[in-house]
């Protein structure tokens, strides 16, 4: 009898745990955005104020010339 692949079994358990703990609202949001269900990011809830402020500081530091907004506008323009 072949020995089970421990890495595969561990990965499978992690995916199953994620899917079982995920709310139906989260699953719908991920499907709508075409995010794979096994990804750990949460997309079905609002971002907390402290996290929004932290992300705004990072954006200002990484893109001082507002390049981020230009990139997003270009991507959204291509999707239309």
Characterise the protein shown here.
The chain has 80 residues and is mainly alpha-helical. It has two domains: 1-45, no CATH class; 47-80, no CATH class. Helices cover 66% and strands 0% of the residues. The radius of gyration is 18 Å and the shape is elongated.
Strand and helix map with partners:
Blueprint: H1 6-21, H2 24-33, H3 49-62, H4 67-79
Q: Poorly predicted ranges (pLDDT <50, ≥5 residues)?
A: none
Distance between the termini: 55 Å
DSSP strand count: 0
The fraction of residues in strands falls at: under 5%
Relative helix content: 55-70%
- The shape is elongated
Keywords:
80 residues; mainly alpha; 2 domains; 4 helices
In a nutshell, what does this entry contain?
Helix content is 66%, strand content 0%.
